[in-house]
Amino acid sequence: MALASPLLALPTMDGDRERVEAALLAAVRTRDAYLTELASHLIVAGGKRLRPVMTIAAAQVGGSATVPDEVIQGAIACELVHLGSLYHDDVMDESIMRRGVDTVNAKWGNLQAIVAGDFLLARASGIAASLGNEIAGLLARTIAELCEGQIEELQHTYSVARTVPSYLVSIEGKTASLFATSARIGALVAGHDATVVDALTNYGTSFGMVFQIVDDILDVIATDAELGKRAGHDMEEGVYTLPVLLTLAQQSSDTDELRSFLGKPLSQTERERALTIVRTHSGIQSAIESAKNYVHMAEAECNLMPQGVVTDAMRAAPAALLASIIR
């Protein structure tokens, strides 16, 4: 199910995304054809490239529509970190499909997927280093934050006692930190002043929080066909996200029944019943309200940026994400 973004509709973004695609493929090209195939597998599969788009938009705020190559390099460093994390996630989740193609682990094996993921992270780090010590340090810290967010989630796998604060800490590390860094790199490379750099960074964090909450809501409200995978996959994997946690917080016979299913792998019948319970209670609406708070935070940061068409698109983007799931 597509997640819309006004950032993709910016007049120059198509050309910039073409530059990103070319730079991504160039970054993973090696003397070893096999490694190149592994590393480029998900690049070729496509994607909206929202993190590079965030970097480019941040650089464009209040300035020229044409960004220098250094911004494109910063953008692909962030995307390579994202791709490397996906390779590792697919190994951990034993996923077999990603973006409509076989995952690297499914096609070539776990060992190859792990090494290829490490290679993508190494390439990202090298590109960041070419942009200076500040960018290199920022990306390194972000990779650590991704790991911290993932560990927070893993610690609470199959735990019905997982708290909402634990969930929020996890997604801030796993998802929002890389959006924040994408925006900050664009701002730093473009030479924005400190107030604008911080506003763009905070915007990236809030956008990332909306993005992940929306994705987690979709996992329980969308159909298998819309998702391209089985609805309720997170619950099956023992990852209890915001709409599930907020449903569990309610007191009813249905939520007691839901709690009795969770804490272990779900059968197909249990998964379908669990989805029915979550879909018919107010946890989803409460999760939407939580996402709205982050939408407002992102919009407030836009008021601290130079105004113009790019800032307008950034202001509209988080609300558009949320609107895509409100039926």
How does the SSE layout of this entry go?
Layout lengths: L12 H15 L5 H13 L4 H11 L8 H25 L3 E2 L2 E2 L1 H5 L1 H21 L2 H23 L8 H27 L3 H28 L2 H4 L5 H4 L5 H7 L4 H9 L6 H12 L3 H20 L6 H15 L4
Antiparallel strand pairs: 1-2
Helix pairs in contact: 1-3, 1-4, 3-4, 3-8, 4-6, 4-7, 4-8, 6-7, 7-8, 8-9, 9-15, 9-16, 12-15, 13-14, 15-16
Textual characterization of the structure:
With 327 residues, the chain is mostly helical. The protein has one domain: Farnesyl Diphosphate Synthase, CATH 1.10.600.10. The chain is 73% helix and 1% strand. It contains 16 helices and 2 strands. It has helices at 13-27, 33-45, 50-60, 69-93, 104-108, 110-130, 133-155, 164-190, 194-221, 224-227, 233-236, 242-248, 253-261, 268-279, 283-302, 309-323, and strands at residues 97-98, 101-102. Strands 1-2 form a two-stranded antiparallel sheet. Strand 1 and strand 2 form a beta hairpin. Helix 9 (194-221) runs parallel beside helix 16. The longest helix has 28 residues, at 194-221. The mean pLDDT is 93.
